[in-house]
Write a structure and sequence with these properties.
Blueprint lengths: L4 H9 L16 E7 L2 E8 L7 H13 L6 E8 L2 H12 L19 E7 L6 H14 L4 E5 L7 H4 L7 E3 L2 E3 L2 E2 L2 E5 L1 H4 L13 E5 L6 H9 L3 E7 L5 H15 L2 E8 L3 E2 L5 E2 L6 H9 L3 E5 L3 H9 L3 H4 L4 H16 L13
Parallel strand pairs: 2-3, 4-10, 4-11, 5-9, 5-10, 11-12, 12-15
Antiparallel strand pairs: 1-2, 6-7, 8-9, 13-14
Length: 351
């Protein structure tokens, strides 16, 4: 039996828009379908004319329709949404929240979103790389994840994720770009406060590339995201005490809890399998001890990680079973297992 109209509609209902991360049927993007003797034609209404996820969307739609029995020919027409359709979509995306409700979804009690603040006592230790690859790994483990680039001194997350387009704007609703299934937001989305940002509701995890120190940006970020759990990235040099003091002081000033330490560039594995500890060893463990938190991960130095970051094709996506990707997976699983902080320690002891 060949597929009929209801099978076609059902197949389309399973397709998610790559940027909006929800079903195209639910989003009101399927305008018309027609099935005749194995020829399927579909008209999709796009929320914006220059839909950044358009090519991927077409691939997904074709893929879903090709899988149906008896389908020989597929035609997908694209048309911009009417004003009415766009208003409906906008309402749908904002959910129950009233148009006037500009409140912060992360500060609400009972918010289901864990906020992981990736921080470091000094620059260049791999904070942004750890942010991006941890987010991608958590997404692969099945969580709905977005990254927030809050390091205003060197925005690097969009580049590492290969994001080249601006956020989609549906009327006045800002839709942060999505790459490899992970949403990417910039701190700039918050500060203006004029434009509502679409929080593709409920996000499981928001991973933040933290601004360094305790300046104005860090302070307002911490106020905006008061439930941020801090993970400190460090290198293996045994300079832990100073870094620990700085990180603990930072967390105390920001009134955030430190939850764990990630050691980066822990070793380099040679062709013969030998591990070389280029930057020494023990830094992560002693920092974790100083801070009284677990060492949640040790990540090897892998040239492909740097290359992936430069090219906007992260190593955890291109080589998900490679050495560093497996280390990210272990790290992500430990963070998962820690669970959200039950009590927010408002005051932290400084050694
Ligand atoms: N495990 C690793 N293996 C190989 N290269 C790495 C690793 N971690 C980070 N790098 C590289 O080291 C450089 C610094 O990393 P990254 O930009 O992530 O650090 P950062 O702490 O965010 O730096 P900044 O202080 O400039 O924001 C980058 O070129 C990155 O690709
Ligand atoms: Mg950085």
């Amino acid at each position: 039996m060949s597929a009929g109209d209801s099978e076609v509609r059902e197949a389309l209902a399973s397709v998610a828009d790559p940027q909006l991360r929800r079903g195209i049927t639910e989003l009101g993007m399927v305008r018309a379908t027609r099935v005749r003797r194995g020829r399927v034609s579909v008209t999709l209404a796009l929320p914006v004319a220059a839909h950044p996820g358009r090519d991927e969307l077409l691939l997904r739609v074709r893929g879903a329709l090709e899988a149906l029995p008896g389908v020989r020919d597929i035609e997908v027409g694209l048309t911009p949404m009417s004003e009415e359709e766009r208003a409906g979509l906008r309402r749908h995306l904002r959910g129950e929240r009233a148009a006037s409700d500009r409140s912060n979804p992360f500060a609400r009690p009972g918010s289901p979103t864990r906020v992981l603040g990736i921080s470091s006592g000094k620059g260049g230790v791999g904070k942004s790389s750890v942010t991006v690859n941890t987010a991608l790994t958590l997404a692969r483990l099945g969580h709905k994840v977005s990254v927030l680039d809050a390091d205003v001194y060197g925005f690097s997350v969009p580049k590492m994720l290969g994001i080249e387009h601006d956020p989609m704007v549906i009327d006045d609703l800002l839709v942060p770009p999505v790459a490899y299934g992970v949403g990417c937001m910039s701190i700039g989305f918050f500060v203006g406060d004029e434009q509502p940002v679409m929080w593709r509701g409920p996000l499981d995890i928001l991973v933040v590339d933290m601004p360094p120190g305790t300046g104005d940006v860090a302070m307002s970020m911490a106020q905006y995201l008061p439930r941020t759990e801090i993970f400190v990235v460090t290198t293996p040099q045994p300079a832990a005490q100073r870094v620990a003091q700085r990180s603990a002081l930072m967390a105390k000033k920001l009134k955030l809890a430190v939850r764990g330490v990630v050691e980066n560039m822990s070793w380099f594995t040679g062709d013969d399998g030998t591990r070389y500890e280029i930057f020494g060893s023990g830094g992560g463990r002693s920092l974790a001890q100083e801070l009284g938190v677990p060492l949640v991960g040790q990540l090897p130095l892998v040239p492909a990680l740097r290359a992936g970051g430069d090219e906007g094709r992260p190593v955890t996506v291109t080589d998900p079973t490679g050495e560093v990707s497996r280390a990210f997976e272990e790290t992500a699983k430990r963070i998962e297992a820690l669970g959200p902080a039950r009590i927010y320690r408002r005051e932290l002891a400084v050694h």
